[in-house]
Design brief:
One of its GO terms (cellular component) is plasma membrane. The chain has 583 residues and is mainly α. The chain has helices at 5-34, 37-68, 76-104, 107-112, 115-142, 146-169, 173-199, 202-207, 216-247, 250-263, 268-286, 290-326, 335-361, 365-416, 426-447, 451-472, 477-486, 491-505, 539-580.
């Protein structure tokens, strides 16, 4: 199946922004409607997130990786879908029974309190429904159908707000919120299974047992290693909440949970990239196209750092203004932990796409070692700092652990066989962030603590950062134009107009006008600039650099046209498939 990384990324990231808007609506309402119960809800959902790793993570990552691979086997897609569907049913049943037994035998009440018994019975049902929600979404992603899988997240969130937040408003507390989660999961599972059935018959996939030569051991191994990897990964942003809930106070846990929620906004783009890169790079790895992997990894690292630095500056500047407006007044206490978490969140943001590219190759041992080292450090630091410093200790411990993720995963990437740092222009990006931070901070202080600053600072700050990035060489003007061109009209038309003007002015590049950045079927396209540190000293080196630059420009234009052709071919294949099915 032909797939475009760009289209998948845009489908995911656009929904991410919508979900952020919905979180801004639901999170403040829950803090008000649940009151002190919001701390219990935060602890409960952290426990659930860790528990679901064993139930769901291996299934979700496995099905989207192996469905995406175009292996020369009869009924490969059918066998993979059926294999993981049977596994999903089995693991969901075991997981559901495990939580129900924990509530029934009194293990939960003895450690967390009597109110948690009812919570755990509801969680046991949520395990089953969430399992199928994730299975359907990840299977659709594996088929390259992010345009279907991501709107299901939006539907899930809408139903959660309507039912869960609505029941909390009516006084049903945490139980009502959990029922809201289940409502969204059940609905999206039904819709998702119906969409999968249009591509692969679920009845046939479930009933047909794969032949003996089907690589069951490979799939089981990937499933087991994925569970270990995701367990280490999730512990980095869930165990601190759980440990603070045990070692600190409920109110501190509530404040800290909001701090995490806001600081983790930096992960919007990295999470979208992580979701799309695992299955999208599987075929690139299988084709041994290492040059494309390196090029893609460097671009992704640079753009991730650019975006997260911009968001980090904005959050650090505007959080004290937004917190009292969005949340109850006492939640201004969350601002201190936010500032402590932001530097580490930038490091974790950079590590996420690198991790996904490594997963795409399937060599998880090195990734587990890197993530596990950061996870162990996180547990040790939280155990040392929380008893003495409370939520501030948790923020420092977590931020340090987040930051080490980037360092460890650069090492793991090189062990696996790709380099995400060379060509990423990291010094230039950091310098651009430093240059832009001062005027953005001064502007926010000038406007004061008013809603007006929330309206003015973000667009003006983005413009300042963009100019700084171009001036210091972290970003090229041509890249900006390329991104505008890929957007829907009228933005796309505006980008094309700028392209025509830019090509007309830039005569020193030659008469052919071949200064086009490439899309490379990646989330963000660019023309890779060769290193030219000795250009000014040696004219021959400068000439060679210009030739290489033109060759790369031609190559990127070809890649861009290829991506468009792949997109059109995918659309035609889908229309043919629908016609065959009589739709």
């Amino acid at each position: 199946m032909k797939r475009s990384i760009t289209r998948g990324f845009l489908s995911i990231v656009s929904i991410k922004f919508l979900l952020i808007g919905l979180d801004f609506l639901s999170s403040p309402l829950l803090t008000r409607f649940l009151g002190e119960g919001y701390g219990d809800y935060a602890i409960l959902m952290s426990i659930f997130a860790v528990y679901m790793i064993f139930v769901s993570s291996g299934v979700g990552d496995g099905v989207r990786k192996y469905v995406a691979e175009e292996r020369d086997r009869a009924h490969w897609d059918e066998h993979v879908v059926g294999f993981y569907l049977r596994m999903a049913i089995l693991l969901a049943a075991i997981g559901c029974l495990g939580l129900a037994l924990a509530a029934q035998t009194g293990i939960v009440t003895s450690r967390l309190g009597t109110s948690y018994r009812t919570y755990f019975y509801l969680l046991s049902l949520l395990v089953f429904t969430s399992q199928f929600r994730e299975y359907t979404r990840r299977t659709l992603m594996g088929f390259g159908l992010e345009r279907y899988s991501e709107p299901l997240l939006f539907l899930d969130k809408i139903l959660f707000i309507v039912v869960g937040v609505g029941l909390a408003f009516r006084g049903h507390g945490v139980q009502g919120v959990l029922i809201g989660h289940m409502t969204g999961a059940v609905t999206t599972s039904i819709v998702g299974l119906a969409l999968i059935n249009r591509t692969v018959s679920l009845r046939t996939a479930l009933a047909k047992i794969p032949p003996k030569d089907f690589p069951r051991r490979e799939l089981f191994t990937f499933n087991a290693l994925s569970i270990i990897l995701i367990l280490c990964l999730t512990s980095l942003y869930e165990l601190d909440v759980m440990m603070l809930g045990v070692l600190g106070t409920t109110q501190e846990t509530a404040y800290y949970k909001i701090s995490l929620t806001i600081a983790e906004f930096l992960w919007i783009v990295p999470l979208a990239l992580q979701n799309v890169l695992l299955h999208s790079t599987s075929n690139i790895w299988s084709n041994r196209n290492y040059e494309r992997i390196n090029s893609l990894a460097a671009r992704v690292t640079r753009y991730t750092l650019l975006f997260t630095l911009l968001l980090g500056i904005g959050i650090g500047t505007l959080a004290p203004v937004a917190l009292p407006i969005v949340y109850p007044d006492e939640y201004i206490a969350s601002y201190g932990p936010i500032l402590l978490l932001l530097p580490g969140c930038v490091g974790f943001a950079l590590a996420r796409p690198i991790l996904a590219i490594g997963q795409g190759k399937g060599d998880l041992h090195v990734l587990i070692a890197s993530t596990g080292a950061a996870a162990v450090g996180n547990i040790v630091l939280n155990a040392l700092l929380i008893p003495q410093y409370g939520m501030y200790g948790a923020a420092v411990a977590t931020s340090i652990s987040y930051g080490t993720m980037f360092v460890f995963h650069v090492w793991s990437a090189r062990k696996i066989g790709f380099d995400p740092v060379t060509g990423a222009r990291i010094p230039q990006v950091i310098f651009a962030g430093g240059v832009a931070a001062l005027p953005i901070g001064l502007l926010a202080r000038l406007l004061g603590d008013s809603v007006f600053s929330l309206v003015i600072v973000p667009p003006v700050g983005a413009a300042i950062f963009l100019v700084a990035a171009v001036v210091v060489g972290a970003l090229d003007v041509e890249e900006i134009i390329a991104h505008l061109e890929t957007a829907p009209d009228p933005i796309g038309s505006f980008g094309s107009t700028l392209r025509a003007k830019f090509d007309g002015v830039d005569d020193d590049r030659g008469a052919d006008g071949h200064e086009f950045p490439g899309d490379d079927a990646s989330p963000v396209g660019e023309r890779q600039r060769p290193k030219d540190g000795n250009t000014a000293a040696k004219s021959n080196a400068g000439s060679g650099s210009d030739v290489r630059e033109r060759l790369e420009t031609i190559e990127t234009r070809i890649e861009r046209q290829r991506d468009r052709l792949e997109s059109q071919q995918e659309t035609i294949e889908q229309l043919i498939d629908e016609l065959r099915r009589g739709r």
